[in-house]
Amino acid sequence: MQFFRLRRLIIRNSAACGLKKEGYALQTLQAAVVPFLLAFTAMYAVYRGTAVFPVFIEGAKKGMQTAVGMLTAVYMLRASGAIDLASAWLAPLFHLLCILQYCVPLALLKPISGGGGLALGSELIRTAGPDSYVGRVAAVMLGSSETSIYTIGLYAGHLGLKRTRYAIPAALCADLAAFMMSAALADKLFPIC
Questions:
Q1: How far from 36 is each of 27, 156, 186, CA to CA, in Å?
Q2: What's the pTM value of the predicted model, to 2 decimals?
Q3: For the residues of 28-63, what is the DSSP string, one character each?
Q4: Residue 69 and residue 62: Cα distance in Å, rounded?
């Protein structure tokens, strides 16, 4: 019953936004995927006789130990000035990749910490202005990249992996590509009037 109410709500809202009727089935499917996956996971766990809550708590404990270590390391990097020193040292290399000097600290910190990256990004936007080129590049960088090292560290710590093989280099290459495209396309897609 709840699913049909949700479907009617989606249809009503999409009609108010001016969406065409052809997208109703896809919108209904999109709205149902996450609740279905959660319900399926819970039912499968009950079927297998797994105590879901204790397993969840055990995983959260392992993840929190890794997260506390990562957050402490990120705070130490920012407080010591290591990010500023590394960004000053790497600025010529990032300039060759068309990444602004102001955004280099963001490009260095975002793969490690989402909160640290968000703090640097909001500081850049506050100082340069939200409609400036630097503010737009910083906003696109924040939205187009992932906290790769943090995520890999969290999963590897939880699973007890000692070596991650190609995961970190591949993730850092993807982040670098996201940063380069952010700088290249910010002016094209969001021109300053």
A1: 14, 28, 37
A2: 0.63
A3: HHHHHHHHHHHHHHHHHHHHHT--HHHHHHHHHHHH
A4: 11
